[in-house]
Design goal:
Length: 340
C-alpha cells in the first residue's frame, strides 16, 4: 500500500472511531458493558462466518467469469484475496471508486492479462449492481407495507440510491447493446466537463474512457455467448448478497433480540445498501450508521443495545474487511505452486 492509502486507512479508522464515540458519549457505560457480557457469542461467530463466506462466494463469482478451458488452475488464495482487496480499497476511497483498480492490480499480480481482467471485473460489477437492484425491487413487492412503515423518513435517500444504481446499470448495458452510440455520447458529455484541463491531459482521459468502453464491449461479446456462465455468476451473486444481509440478523440474535422477522431485517439491510450508495464518504461512513439507527431502533429499545448492535454490524461488514484486505495486499499468491 502507498503512503496515501495508508493515510486514508488511518483517517477512516479514526473517523469510524469518532462516530462511535459521538454516538456512545451519552450512553451509560456500565449498561453497555453489561449488554456486552450478555452477548450470545455463538451467533456473533456465525455473523463473522457469514461475512467470510460472502467473500468466498464473491471469489467464486470471479472465478466463474474468469475461468477458461485453456487456463491453468487458479489457486484458492488467488481468487479469495481479490474480494478482500476490493473491500479494503472500497472502504478508503470515495464512492468505493478504488475497489475496481485495486482488484485489477491483484489479478495482474497473478499474471492475468490486464485487458481481460478489467473486462471481467466490469462484467462482475454489472451483475452485482443488477442483483442489488433486483433484490430491492423484490423487497418492495414482497414487503411494501413494512417498507412504508419503517422507511418513510428515509424515502428520499432510498430513491437517490435507486437512481444511482439504475443509471450505472443503464450506462453499462448501453455499452453492451448500443456500443457506437454510447462511445459518441461519452465523448460529447466529457469534452465540456473537461474543458478546463490542458489538451494533453484531456486527451488522455478521453482515450482512457474509449479503451475502457472497448474492453468492456469486447468482453461482453464473449459473455453474451456464455449465458450459462453469466446465469451462474448472477445466482452466486444473490447468494453472496444474502450472506452479507444475514450478518445484521445474526448480530441481533447475538444481542438476544429474538422478536424479529428475518424478512423485515433483510429488507432493512437492502435499504441501507441503497442509502449508503449515495454518500461520497468512503464506505458510506456516517450514512450507514445513521440509517442503521433509524431503521433498527424499533427492534432494540435499549439505547446501549442499539449502539452496540451498530458497532458490531459495522465492524463485521466494514472494518473487518479492511483488516482482511491488508492481509490480501501483503500476501501475494505463490504462482509457482499453482502452476505445479
Amino acid at each position: 500500500m502507498s503512503r496515501k492509502n495508508i493515510f486514508a486507512l488511518l483517517v477512516m479508522l479514526g473517523l469510524g472511531a469518532g462516530i462511535f464515540w459521538w454516538e456512545a458519549k451519552d450512553i451509560n457505560f456500565e449498561s453497555l458493558v453489561n449488554i456486552f457480557k450478555g452477548l450470545n457469542f455463538f451467533w456473533l461467530v456465525i455473523a463473522f462466518v457469514s461475512m467470510l463466506l460472502s467473500y468466498a462466494v464473491e471469489a467464486w463469482v470471479l472465478h466463474t467469469l474468469l475461468k477458461k478451458k485453456e487456463d491453468r488452475k487458479f489457486g484458492w488464495w488467488e481468487m479469495y484475496r481479490i474480494p478482500l482487496i476490493q473491500a479494503l480499497f472500497n472502504a478508503i476511497t470515495p464512492f468505493s471508486s478504488g475497489g475496481q483498480p485495486a482488484q485489477l492490480v491483484g489479478l495482474m499480480q497473478s499474471k492475468i492479462d490486464g485487458g481481460r481482467a478489467s473486462s471481467v471485473l466490469l462484467m462482475k460489477f454489472v451483475i452485482y449492481q443488477g442483483m442489488v437492484l433486483i433484490n430491492f425491487v423484490v423487497a418492495m413487492l414482497v414487503s411494501f407495507q413494512s417498507v412504508a412503515r419503517h422507511f418513510g423518513g428515509l424515502a428520499l435517500l432510498i430513491l437517490f440510491g435507486l437512481v444511482i444504481h439504475v443509471v450505472t446499470i443503464s450506462f453499462l448495458l448501453m455499452i453492451m447493446y448500443y456500443y457506437n452510440f454510447t462511445k459518441r455520447m461519452v465523448q460529447v458529455v466529457l469534452k465540456p466537463v473537461l474543458f478546463f484541463l490542458k489538451d494533453e491531459k484531456r486527451d488522455k482521459i478521453l482515450e482512457s474512457a474509449d479503451r475502457s468502453i472497448d474492453s468492456f464491449y469486447n468482453e461482453s461479446l464473449v459473455l453474451k455467448k456464455e449465458r450459462k456462465k453469466v446465469i451462474k455468476a448472477a445466482v452466486l451473486t444473490v447468494l453472496q448478497l444474502f450472506l452479507y444481509y444475514f450478518v445484521v440478523y445474526f448480530v441481533l440474535l447475538a444481542l438476544n433480540v429474538h422478536h424479529i422477522n428475518l424478512l423485515d431485517v433483510i429488507v432493512m439491510q437492502i435499504m441501507i445498501v441503497m442509502i449508503t450508495s449515495i454518500f461520497p464518504v468512503p464506505g458510506g461512513t456516517g450514512g450507514a450508521e445513521v440509517s442503521f439507527k433509524a431503521l433498527f431502533a424499533g427492534f432494540i429499545p435499549s439505547a446501549s443495545g442499539l449502539i452496540l448492535a451498530m458497532f458490531l454490524w459495522r465492524f463485521i461488514t466494514y472494518f473487518f474487511g479492511m483488516f482482511l484486505g491488508m492481509i490480501g495486499v501483503s500476501k501475494k499468491p505463490n504462482l509457482n505452486k499453482n502452476k505445479a
